[in-house]
Task: inverse folding
């Protein structure tokens, strides 16, 4: 059973608590801190530790289950699944999205076309720092 | 997660007036069994009246109220024994000591959890020998909460329960509410104007304004659905700027602030295209949302 202490929530944030939990657990899995075969802490443990409604934790867990990050093992808890190459690539791409949205926003401010933005981005990606 | 749910409390078109003031105005609300509902509203918006009507303590002028499948104004003794209530003004018997009051109250209820009472009494640092009349407001509120939890009610109604509690006691109180909520079969309704009390424990929120429920739904859904858009255009924006689901809009020259329900990518794209604007989307916490909803209509 994995410790629940890596989880932290900001209840007064605009991001719903269940989404904060999902994001943190996804990040732990993508970063290799939680690996296949690990169990997530129980709903009860997390709810007590963070002093939040257990239903919120259940909701986060069922979303993670639906997305194939974990699977429910009866009587045992939520088992972290092998992310696999494809899922891993997808989750890494997902992590880039907020930054790209900012880029797109700024590009619109500057009235740059998509082609111009991509032309600027390409050499940055291809050149090693 | 969304199987058809049992309803612990149902209010249908409930109206109540005091003299000339319409306090509840054809108000409708369903509270599903197992939920922790935060009832949010400014002072004087009818929160207390709503709770009192739901308990059958105040008879509404019209409308239908059903509590634990029984009519609110004609609750059976069995149903009453399944309800816990902490009113805003607590009038316990001032001459009694806490321990005597607990003894006295326990006689009314078939399932009285003495272990829970002792546990909370010591956790919340209440002295059983103290006289109720000599207690501070906060201490009396703690005692009233303990008495309401002691018979393990299926429906717990709390009117501004944390109002007189210090931050530590408030945390302890929220913990107690969570322990009630933990089994998923019991329902909690609590009114407050302090949004931070709700964010941890409530899974549903109902916002009361001018005697009506202006929002009712899951806390997460509310946070996911209402966003504030910062719109900035290269030209002056129309004063009557409008989008579907707008709650509140403020336009100032080339810039606009709008809080909007059910924001979609499509809607953002339309906004950007129509007004040659950039749009930044901001997440709102419950307090922000509450303020936006309170100010809606005063646009």
Result:
């Amino acid at each position: 059973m994995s410790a629940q202490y890596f989880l932290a929530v900001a209840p007064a944030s605009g991001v719903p608590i269940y989404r904060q939990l999902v994001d943190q657990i996804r990040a732990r899995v993508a970063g290799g801190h939680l690996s296949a075969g690990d169990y997530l802490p129980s709903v009860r443990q997390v709810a007590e530790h963070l002093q939040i409604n257990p239903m919120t934790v259940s909701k986060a867990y069922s979303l993670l289950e639906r997305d194939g990050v974990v699977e429910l093992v009866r009587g045992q808890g939520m088992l972290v699944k092998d992310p696999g190459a494809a899922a891993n690539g997808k989750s890494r791409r997902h992590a880039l999205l907020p930054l790209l949205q900012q880029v797109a926003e700024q590009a619109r401010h500057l009235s740059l076309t998509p082609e111009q933005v991509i032309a600027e981005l390409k050499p940055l990606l291809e050149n090693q720092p | 997660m969304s199987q058809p749910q049992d309803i612990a409390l149902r209010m249908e078109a409930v109206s109540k007036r005091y003299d000339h003031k319409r306090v509840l105005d054809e108000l409708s609300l369903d509270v599903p069994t197992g939920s922790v509902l935060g009832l949010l509203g400014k002072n004087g918006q009818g929160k207390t009246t709503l709770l009192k009507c739901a308990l059958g303590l105040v008879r509404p002028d019209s409308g239908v109220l059903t509590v634990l499948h029984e009519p609110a104004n004609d609750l059976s003794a069995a149903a009453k024994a399944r309800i816990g209530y902490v009113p805003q003004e607590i009038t316990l018997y001032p001459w009694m000591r806490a321990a005597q009051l607990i003894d006295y109250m326990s006689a009314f209820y078939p399932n009285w959890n003495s272990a829970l009472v002792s546990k909370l009494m010591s956790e919340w640092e209440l002295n059983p020998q103290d006289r109720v009349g000599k207690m501070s407001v906060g201490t009396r509120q703690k005692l009233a909460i303990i008495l309401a939890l002691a018979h393990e009610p299926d429906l717990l109604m709390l009117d501004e329960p944390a109002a007189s509690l210090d931050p530590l006691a408030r945390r302890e109180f929220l913990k107690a509410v969570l322990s009630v909520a933990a089994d998923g079969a019991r329902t909690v309704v609590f009114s407050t104007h302090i949004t931070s009390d709700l964010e941890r424990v409530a899974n549903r929120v109902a916002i009361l304004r001018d005697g009506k429920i202006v929002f009712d739904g899951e806390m997460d859904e509310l946070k996911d659905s209402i966003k504030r858009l910062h719109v900035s255009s290269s030209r002056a924006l129309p004063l009557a700027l409008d989008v579907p689901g707008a709650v509140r809009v403020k336009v100032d020259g080339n810039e606009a602030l709008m809080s909007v329900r059910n924001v979609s990518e499509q809607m953002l794209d339309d906004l950007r295209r129509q007004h040659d604007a950039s749009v930044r989307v901001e997440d709102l916490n419950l307090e922000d949302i509450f303020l936006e909803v309170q100010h809606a209509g005063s646009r």
Observations:
- Chain B touches chain A through 31 residues (CB under 8 Å).
- The mean pLDDT of chain B is 88.
- The CA atoms of residues 84 and 149 of chain B lie 7 Å apart.
